[in-house]
Amino acid sequence: MAPAEYEAKKLRKRSDYGYHQVHQTRWFDNDMYAHLNNTVYTTLFDTIANSYLIEHCGMNPFSVNNPTPNGSGDQPSSAGTDQIGLIVSTSTDFFASVAFPDILEVGLRVAKLGSSSVTWEIGIFRKGEEDVKMVGTYTHVFVLRETMRAGPGGMASQVRRGLEKLLNSPGAKL
């Protein structure tokens, strides 16, 4: 990564992320070095990205024909539920440690939107502190559930509309 990109990530603020969740760390999240184990960060990535897909993009991973409300009170069509997101890439830049019993504020935005993929950016903040502790990226490629290959039209339009709301949108409100 270019030094300028690293430094830009290090300066991220909560307002750079349009979707947020709060997570209470647990005792067994710590590793033998008394900080959050790296696998926990991956769990946080997965949790916030999939929560957003369920709440705002109509993707229900548990049922092909049972879409989930998109958070606006509207029932999305089931068009996006024949697709699933496969993780193809992750990376993480650490700036400071967090550990149990910290309460974490996790932020999400879309860093890049392709025809069948999304690269998420996740920021981890300790509750009450302004400095970002970690910035991660995580890429999903949307494929047809039955074939595990990208569909001819890329990602479903309702998924794209939901993702566009977070596309590099500091301060975006949902």
Could you explain the architecture of this structure?
The chain is α+β, with helices and mostly antiparallel strands. It has helices at 3-10, 38-57, 157-164, and strands at 19-24, 83-94, 103-113, 117-126, 132-144. The protein has one domain: Hotdog Thioesterase (Thiol Ester Dehydrase, Chain A, Roll). The longest helix has 20 residues, at 38-57. The chain is globular. Strands 1-3-4-5-2 form a 5-stranded antiparallel β-sheet, sandwiched between helices. InterPro entries: 4-hydroxybenzoyl-CoA_TE, HotDog_dom_sf, Thioestr_dom. Belongs to the 4-hydroxybenzoyl-CoA thioesterase family. Keywords: Hydrolase.
Fold topology:
Layout: H1 3-10, E1 19-24, H2 38-57, E2 83-94, E3 103-113, E4 117-126, E5 132-144, H3 157-164
Antiparallel strand pairs: 1-3, 2-5, 3-4, 4-5
Give a nutshell description of this structure:
The protein is of the alpha+beta class. The chain contains three helices and five strands. A hairpin with a 5-residue loop joins strand 4 and strand 5 (132-144).
Sketch the topology as an H/E string, one letter per element: HEHEEEEH
Structural class: alpha+beta
The main β sheet shows up as: 5 strands, antiparallel
Total strand segments: 5
Tell me, briefly, the overall form.
Answer: globular
Percent helix range: 10-25%
Distance between the termini: 31 Å
* Percent strand: 25-35%
User: Helical segment tally?
Assistant: 3
Low-confidence stretches: 66-80
CATH fold-level label: Thiol Ester Dehydrase, Chain A
